[in-house]
Every structure is written in C-alpha cells, then in structure tokens.
Amino acid sequence: MHRIVTKYFTFLLALLFINFFPQVSHAQENDKEQAITKAINKLFDGMRDGDSTAVRSVFMPECTMYSAFRTSDFKSMMRAGDIESFVTAVGTPHEKVWDEKISNLIIHVDDNIATAWMDYHFYVGETFSHCGTNVMQFFLSDNEWKIIHLMDTRKKECE
Length: 159
Prior knowledge:
By secondary structure, this protein is α+β, with helices and mostly antiparallel strands.
C-alpha cells in the first residue's frame, strides 16, 4: 500500500511540476515583454512630448543607430546616426508633434537581452512623413531594459 501511495504522490508532484513551472516561466517572459514595451512607449511618448530626458533614459550611452533606405535609383544604403544628435533633435521644440505610431510589435527575450521588431508610420503633426520597420536590441541594465542598438528602414510607401 505504501508503494502505491508513494507512486501516486510522485505522479501528482510530477503533474504539478510539469503544469506549474512552464506557467511561471511564461509569466516571467510576459513581465519582461511588458517592461520592454513600457520602454518603447516611453521613447515614443517622449518624442511626441519633445522630452529629451525621457527619450535619453531608454538608451544606453553607447547605443548605435542606423537607418536603411533606398535611393531614387533603388540602390540600398545605410546611414549611421548617433544617440546625442537624435536626443537633441527630439528634445528641440517643434511647431508640430513628431508622432511615430507603431504596430505589429514582436518581442523576443532571452535572459538579459531582447529584440523588438515593429512597423511604424511617422507623422509630423497630422502629415504623413515616412514609414518602415524599427528593430531594437535591448540589454537589462540595473533592472531596466535599455536600447543598445536601433535600426530602421525608411520608405515613403508601406504595405
């Protein structure tokens, strides 16, 4: 009888382990994704508000930035940017709001690194400017997700 109870107890423990721990892991991943989404929203809210302090706060100081685009003769080009110029441009008062609207956000996380991929449409006030895709790489620094690399495409027409 003792053997049957032990086997039954072991079986129940195994079921609990199998069912509980993936949920804990999934919940932890969701928490990380929510924190990354919060950092992304802080960036774009800061852009809309012209708040250079908020924008700077989501970047690592050594962040790299690149834009990929095609020339009028369809040649593929890439241009480097720098975080300080970006923060200055965003933080300079604008007559019209700079509004980057994102969609189709996909986040992949492993431990203390992550990648976020999203489509965007950029508006100056109500006027469409350009669109494309943002790819951001994050590092978990002092319990905050910070952007360490940002690359975007820039197009006048998007699907």
